[in-house]
Amino acid sequence: MSDDNSSGWSMRGLKRWLSTAPETRDDLLRLVQDSRQFLEPDTVDMLEGVLDLPATQVREIMTPRPQVHAIASDASLADILAVVLETEHSRYPVFDSLDDNAVVGILLVKDLIPLLKAHAEGQDTPLQLTKMVRKPLYISETARSDTLLRAFQKAQVHMAVVVDEFSSVSGVVTMEDLLEEIVGDIVDEHDDIEADTDINNIVPHPDKAGVWLVQAATLISDCNEILGSSFDDADVDTMGGLVMQALGFVSHLEGEVVQIDNWQITVLDVEGRFIHLLELALIPQVQDDD
Hints:
The protein has about 290 residues and is α+β, with helices and mostly antiparallel strands. The chain has helices at about 5-15, 25-35, 40-50, 75-85, 115-120, 130, 145-155, 175-185, 220-225, 240-245; strands at about 65, 70, 90-95, 105-110, 140, 160-165, 170-175, 200-205, 210-215, 255-260, 265-270, 275-280. Helix 2 runs antiparallel to helix 3 (about 40-50).
């Protein structure tokens, strides 16, 4: 059968599959999960991510206050540049004091460029940080992620300050945090993939001989090269995607076991809908006695 005929069959099958409108969100989610036979796995994953937004609270995707890289309102230009060079973010919340919860605003690093240019030209332009920051967007930690998306769109900002029921700052959340709920981890130009132990990592299990621990973001081709496996990477690129494709669903993944080729793969660590860590064990092949 030609590819054109196969494509036509898939489209006809998809139309029949969609002939009955789902009545609930769960029905729609199941419909999307079952559509893997018609759609690309990555497309299905993104659709599932979009459908999961209303069920995800901001507190689940935010960066908690103790982990937030912030700047004090009385910081000098040298202090700010030191933080920027160390953390390499594009925006920072500015607090009255790093020990309290009063947010002055959000500093965009690009807004420092005119000041840096003036200093480079020998001008003694003072830093007026409180006048330079952008007005902060506040969001409740119990707000739904789809509400956060609409707030970002309306305010045209990429960072929000998250507050608890007492209006105290509990963290910050960014557009990237939101997008990662839909498409998975986003590795940007500042991420050191080789140094990141959570990415592209294949190590022997410390307690089990012949068993490997594999990060879900590992490329299938890398896994095949290192382990001598022959996993198919025609439809998906990563080991996590391969397991998701084999399981065919996204709920309650932790502890699930699937056999692919002659490997038993166990899902060890999951965050939300995304697999982080897998255990791979080669299944001994029984030799026929002739």
